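Hi R.,

Here's the chain you asked about this morning:
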Amino acid sequence: MKKPIILIVSLGALAFLTWFTLDLMENSGQSDPDVANFDFSIDEVETIDKILITDKLNQRFELHKKGKSWKDKDGNCVTQPNVEFILNAIKNIEFKGYVKDNSIQRYRTMITAQHIKVEIHQNGKWSKTWYIGPPAQDHYGQIMLLDDAAEGKSNTPVLMRIKGFNGIIEPRFFTDPRQWACTNIFSLSHTDINEVDVRYTEEPARSFNVKRRGLQFDVYQNGQLLNGVDTANVFRYLSRYKKIHYNLGNFELNNRQVDSLKATNPFAILTVNETSGKKSELKCYRLRTFNVVDSIPDDMV
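And the predicted structure, written out as tokens:
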């Protein structure tokens, strides 16, 4: 009677050991999901009202939601599409995979030494903090750590990616205020404009002036009223002030070079007087041209 019982127990133990071995083999090289926290996403991004970004050089930029738009910490305009890229990442970030066990400590050290920190606030309260580390080896994602208000800070880095996007996450989070600044120079309807004065310093004959007269506009050149001006062309010209942007902030000239540029004469000066009484003056300087031939050694020309 004892032999069947012993046989049954032995078979049971053998089955358990087989299952346990297969389970170890299946999860070999993977982190324990109970230790790793990868709940990075927030579905209700409309509840996010503050985002703080700190880069690898400890430079910081703050985004604050004001009504339906976003501003910087001083209330200045920021480029809204850049914020949308961040909110899209927060909503669509998803778990990609575990870091191999023998690499956990190395990545943990790397993230501790150098990372991008993203602090997310919802409804006036801190919610989550992302620590963005190095990119995944295939560059389809990022190795990250999470600090969560409810779950605490995870100690195990994991691989994360943005759903439907093949690339790294880091470029969406930058702190240079020049990249965040709104690029619009004028956003005016023709009803907002009282007068436009364009003066060419090198070619005065090209200078002109557009002045409001009731619901119409008069055009002057060298102080002389122009007769027979096409009214449609005048309104077409003024409508261009609805959306005038600059291409890029100054990433090339240092302060000394900027002062030297300002000491020169602009080739044109644009002055806009609004019906509200606001006056804006835009000085235009020529871009420095680069001659490719001049940069080639004489023996190669």
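Residues 17-34 have pLDDT under 50 and may be disordered.

Let me know if you need anything else.
M.
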